[in-house]
UniProtKB/TrEMBL annotation:
Keywords: Hydrolase, Nucleus, Protease, Signal, Thiol protease, Transcription, Transcription regulation, Ubl conjugation pathway
Gene3D superfamilies on file: Cysteine proteinases, Zinc/RING finger domain, C3HC4 (zinc finger)
SUPFAM superfamilies the record matches: Cysteine proteinases, RING/U-box
An annotated GO cellular component: nucleus
E.C. no: 3.4.19.12
Record's compositionally biased regions (Polar residues): 381-392
Alphabetical list of PROSITE patterns matching this protein: PROKAR_LIPOPROTEIN (PS51257), USP_2 (PS00973), USP_3 (PS50235)
Annotated protein name in UniProt: ubiquitinyl hydrolase 1
KW Lipid metabolism (keyword) present: no
Catalysed conversion reaction: Thiol-dependent hydrolysis of ester, thioester, amide, peptide and isopeptide bonds formed by the C-terminal Gly of ubiquitin (a 76-residue protein attached to proteins as an intracellular targeting signal)
Record's signal peptide: 1-18
PANTHER family in UniProt: UBIQUITIN CARBOXYL-TERMINAL HYDROLASE, UBIQUITIN CARBOXYL-TERMINAL HYDROLASE 22
Example GO biological process: proteolysis
Species name: Wallemia ichthyophaga (strain EXF-994 / CBS 113033)
Length: 540
């Protein structure tokens, strides 16, 4: 008797989550490697896992739904959830009883019928755990799915060989191919490439930021899992609702470019973003910060920013900068910390003589002061800035975190000979850098000096953390690059974003595959990196 593949998947998922639940003491952190995070969100992954589900599981789901439908004639089998009566726009398939439910009904269903419930989102193939109350990612599950795909392909090849057909070598899709994949009779063709955005009149600055948000896995999972539903939200002029509709549109089978008119109008009329209204050329970095703040305000009742904010913006983009002021006479140190959403780094010019080149875009949050420290601090003995030519991102970060002279007056000995040093106290999940290419002196000019940046970035040398954790905990992978072409007052924005293992060049409505080398050879105005390893803190 053949064992249902769906049951095998359920068993594997159960083992993975059971390990996390049983081995994590209260308050102890667990790490989940998410090196396959892009694959988990990739369309190929979504369609392949649905194809591996056993037909018996699909039939059982349909039978259970039909039984429920017959007992309640007013319910529509394909439209309404059996428990909550909500529309089944994204059915969640329970792996225990093979019934389909709305996302909001999964917890109630688990509490009433199962001790632990696992469900699969039929559109994204993400696995929901009722204990975690969230979608989970597991490298072990990814390996099992790849193994099942390989076995299925081998069986298909054996059948073809028996019919006299030989197996052909794998050939990747050509770059000029309209990359779509058909998941079969249970769904519509889904585009493998991101959709373009029409230029509505000098709106290229907005288009590149939208592409960056769409390429961010955590934002994509948040909105596609209906954590914010525009049909249920009662807020007026809600920016999060506009993004909920946008993420739904970009994942439709249609590949035609979108015109984000509704979101643009929301940006123009939203409080705090009036500078971006109109048809003048705008800065993409300003739009990035404004949209982050607007989404934060839409997802929480508080308009202030704090360290403990649990909204999707702060849990994804917020980190903490540490500033240490140290007296060179008595060694007294004053340490403060501030939250930031991105980091601005200086390119450097011929006039640069000091280190510490850069600033962080901080939020208005409380400062954590720790005064009276007398420890030496790293690099504090020699405050002379190094002779660093910031030709790459590591050099820019070295300048940013190097001690620089300060006019701070020591509160211990009253001496006015001190140094100031910045470091990263807490690293965010998504780390965004702005390369400061606009210089304002006697005259304004744009700095076109190339800054090389890596695909993988190790942030450990720039942190104030002296823990013994391995370097893997500090590794970041590049997933989006925004470039500006032209002069300071006039120009054009375009970007390159990563989906799965493929990079795409996005220039308004034009989206085409590109090579990694082309991405790395670009100048770079904004760079977005995602942490390779996420940290899970048990809520028990």
């Amino acid at each position: 008797m053949k064992i249902s593949i769906a049951l095998i998947l359920a068993a594997v998922i159960g083992c993975v989550c059971a390990e996390i639940i049983t081995t994590a003491p209260p308050g102890e952190s667990q790490t989940l490697a998410v090196s396959q995070a892009y694959n988990a969100d990739d369309v190929v992954f979504r369609t392949s896992i649905m194809a591996t589900l056993s037909p018996t599981s699909t039939q059982a789901s349909a039978t259970a739904a039909a039984t429920s439908s017959s007992s309640s004639p007013s319910r529509s089998l394909s439209n309404l959830c059996q428990v909550s009566n909500l529309p089944l726009t994204r059915p969640q398939l329970c792996l225990t009883c093979a019934n389909c439910f709305h996302y909001a009904a999964l917890s109630n269903h688990s509490n009433q019928h199962h001790n632990i419930c696992f469900a699969i989102d039929t559109l994204s193939a993400s696995v929901f755990c009722s204990v975690c109350c969230d979608y989970i990612y597991s490298p072990r599950l990814d390996k099992v799915i790849k193994l099942l795909k390989l076995r299925r392909e081998e069986k298909s090849t054996k059948r073809k060989a028996a019919n006299g057909h030989s197996r052909s070598a794998f050939k990747p899709l050509p770059q000029n191919d309209v990359s779509t994949i058909a998941p079969g009779r249970y769904g519509n063709p889904i585009s493998l490439r991101p959709r373009g955005f029409r230029n509505l009149g000098k709106t290229c600055f907005l288009n590149v930021i939208l592409q960056a948000f769409i390429a961010t896995p955590l934002l994509r999972s948040y909105f596609l899992s209906e954590k914010h539903n525009h049909l249920l939200c009662t807020r007026d002029k809600c920016t999060a609702c506009e993004f909920d509709k946008l993420f739904t549109q970009v994942h439709q089978p249609d590949t035609a470019p979108l015109g984000p008119t509704s979101l643009l109008h929301n940006l123009w009329t939203a409080p705090g973003a009036s500078d971006l209204a109109g048809y003048a050329q705008q800065d993409a970095h300003e739009a990035y910060i404004s949209l982050l703040n607007l989404i934060h305000s839409s997802c929480t009742s508080s308009t202030s920013h704090s360290y403990d904010c649990s909204c999707i913006i702060h849990t994804t983009f917020q980190g903490t900068l540490q500033s240490e002021l140290k007296c060179r006479v008595c060694g007294y140190a004053s340490v403060t910390s501030d939250p930031f959403l991105d980091v601005s780094l200086d390119v450097g010019s011929s006039r640069d003589t000091n280190g510490g080149g850069g600033s962080g875009s901080t939020t208005n949050g409380p400062k954590n002061g720790k005064n009276g420290t007398t420890n030496s601090g790293k690099n504090s003995a020699n405050h002379t800035p190094p002779s660093i030519s910031p030709q790459n991102l590591d050099n820019c970060l070295r300048r940013y975190t190097y001690p620089e002279p300060s006019d701070w007056k020591c509160t211990s000995c009253s001496a006015q000979a001190s140094t100031k040093q910045l470091s990263f106290r807490k690293l965010p999940t998504v780390l965004a850098f702005q390369i400061k290419r606009y210089e304002h002196g006697l005259w304004a000019q744009k700095l076109d000096a190339p800054v090389r940046f890596p695909l993988t970035l190790n942030m450990r040398p720039y942190t104030s953390d002296d823990s013994s954790e391995p370097d893997e905990m500090y590794l970041y992978d590049l997933f989006c690059v925004i470039n500006h072409l032209g002069e300071m007052e006039t120009g054009h924005y375009l970007c390159a974003s990563r989906f799965g293992e493929q990079w795409f060049r996005c220039e308004d409505a034009d989206v085409s595959p590109t090579s990694i080398q082309s991405v790395l050879d670009s100048q770079g105005y904004m760079l977005l990196y995602i942490k390779r390893t996420l940290v899970y803190y048990s809520s028990a």
